[in-house]
Amino acid sequence: MSKILRAACLQHACTGDREANLATSASMVREAAAAGAQLVLLQELHAGPYFCQVEEVACFDLAEPIPGPGTAFLGSLAQECGVVLVASLFERRAPGLYHNTAVVFERDGSIAGRYRKMHIPDDPAYYEKFYFTPGDLGFTPIATSVGKLGVLVCWDQWYPEAARLMALAGADLLLYPTAIGWDPRDEAAEKNRQRDAWVTVQRAHAVANGLPVLVANRIGHEASPDAQAPGLDFWGHSFVAGPQGEFLSVASGDSAEVLLTDIDLGRSEDVRRIWPFLRDRRIDAYGDLVKRFRD
Which of 12, 34, 36, 44 could disulfide-pair with 177, CB 3.0 to 4.6 Å? Predict the structure, then answer.
């Protein structure tokens, strides 16, 4: 049975002006709602620049409690627009304890649930382990009026285990707020390989689980606070894929966009009937998956 959900992925550049960033997000959420969106996905850490390019203690001042001022603003926005809103925040849980957290707001502005990023990178220009404690809420979909949302965050998107566990828990969609880009010094061929790998692995999650996948990534160059570092060029290309990995919509690499997509949630049932991957899983033989490596 067809069940159409109109969703929007938002991508835009971020500056050091928090209020301006929030105003941009709010304007785009309103635009999406006016176009009929019922579900809106914001990019990772949308309220400011991607501060994890360096390790700097002062950046912890950017964190906020949940609930707090950020959730009050976003909840009010969700209620005003009548949309389910997914937003990524830098959560201050306690002194010295911080998370990269996605919060889901229901249409009435209430908090439907949250997801704390589980996989935390530690790579050049992505020094997230300095800031974020790995999540402790597990891989649990968040129930909303538009369905059960399997919310994951950025680096989580490289891990098939995360997508699978969300699917096994009944997620209707997989959502990835993201902040990913390349080193501007890389050659064009290397940049293309990185972006293609990023797209391919997430489309594969859609295929392997028979679920739509929504991805929202930021755009623009962000200079590093370290004057010797090259900064990051965020590559945009937010997209939505259907349950066979097919592209339903794709954004540009360098423009702010409200990427609207009509998703037929009924197709997941149809696809899973002809590709019953969940039925044929050999759960009796997968015990070694919980090992770091098979020596």
Answer: 44
